[in-house]
Design a protein that fits this description.
2 domains, five-stranded mixed beta sheet, about 25% strand
């Protein structure tokens, strides 16, 4: 795994004030700061930086990579062409097929499931890189969309056939399309092409499009669907809450994490709480970033089970079990 975080840190409470989000909502998020990219740090470059870090950390020759999946959760450098090809060229992964996968902050976990499937086909795909880069600060109002705050950064994960460590055992991804249009960027596509009117109305910013449904109907089912998704993936692998050594969750909201883990009967001390507070949310790489940190901190051991959970606009919930 490899990650890239810009140096600049901005206080979350200050961002909340600028965005008009009440302090109590900002405190539920749990993070003290988020990162902000510099003027020259676009998503593609942050993804390349993370990819190169992953290659160094794993002592991997880029020529070994058979597939690159770009899993950026937000806006890429361009609407078209896709990002994956330019990233494969930049890191000299000249043998790799490359494509983009669009699944919001559920993207990298979905990408892991796609990578597993490609490797299982046994058609010569043995090494897959998942890579992402996001610059939320450029298309959100002060890093905020409703009461979720986003940081900038990049991440990369390499999966290898028959690798003995950190084996992905199973995934469970649930999409409820009736909530597709609650959050997003209204303009820039063919329904609302860019114009002086869309610019004047701030329609190119990521925003909560339907606050009424988001704060009522959706809020009621958000955590219950999380619980269901986690329980389903644990059932697939035959583990229980007592078997979970580390719970890595999207770093979006500490209050939600507390409520969820209480229902799952998993102690907060065995979760990514500390990393959420230190770094906040910066995209689909959150759950792998937390995993990388807990390995570095030597808080898990060989044979331990890790459960991951993330969510993404569209709207999807995704969970996976990994064995160290």
């Amino acid at each position: 795994m490899g990650f890239y975080l810009p140096e600049k840190e901005v206080p979350l409470l200050a961002l909340a004030k600028k965005a008009g989000v009440p302090d109590f909502k900002a405190k539920f998020v749990g993070a003290a700061t988020v990162r902000e990219a510099g003027a020259d740090e676009l998503p593609r470059q942050m993804a390349i930086n993370a990819a190169k870090a992953a290659l160094r950390n794993g002592d991997i020759d880029p020529g070994e990579i058979n597939l690159i999946i770009y899993c950026g959760a937000g806006v890429s450098d361009y609407i078209s062409p896709p990002s994956a090809g330019s990233i494969s060229h930049a890191i000299r992964a000249d043998r790799a097929m490359a494509f983009d996968l669009v699944q919001g902050c559920c993207g990298m976990l979905t990408g892991m499931q796609v990578a597993k499937a490609q490797i299982a086909l046994n058609e010569g795909c043995a090494t897959v890189m998942l890579v992402t880069g996001d610059r939320w600060s450029q298309f959100t109002q002060h890093h905020a969309a409703d009461s979720v705050f986003f940081g900038d950064g990049g991440g990369a994960v390499v999966l290898k056939k028959d690798h003995p460590d950190l084996q992905p055992l199973a995934s469970e991804i649930k999409t409820k399309g009736e909530y597709h249009h609650l959050w997003g960027i209204p303009a820039g596509g063919l329904r609302h092409p860019a114009s002086s009117d869309t610019l004047r109305q701030d329609m190119h910013l990521y925003q909560c499009i339907d606050p009424e449904r988001a704060h009522n109907e959706f809020k009621e089912i958000y955590i219950p669907v999380m619980v269901e998704t986690v329980r389903r993936v644990m059932k697939k692998t035959g583990i229980t809450s007592r078997d979970v050594a580390f719970f890595s969750m999207v770093n979006a909201n500490l209050k939600v994490q507390e409520l969820l883990l209480e229902q799952l009967d998993i102690p907060m001390a065995q979760s990514s709480e500390t990393y959420l507070k230190r770094f906040g949310h910066f995209g689909s790489q959150d759950i792998f970033f937390n995993l990388d940190l807990v390995v570095q901190d030597q808080k898990i051991h060989k044979g331990d089970h890790i459960v991951m959970l993330t969510t993404g606009i569209g709207f999807s919930w995704g969970s996976a079990v990994i064995k160290y």
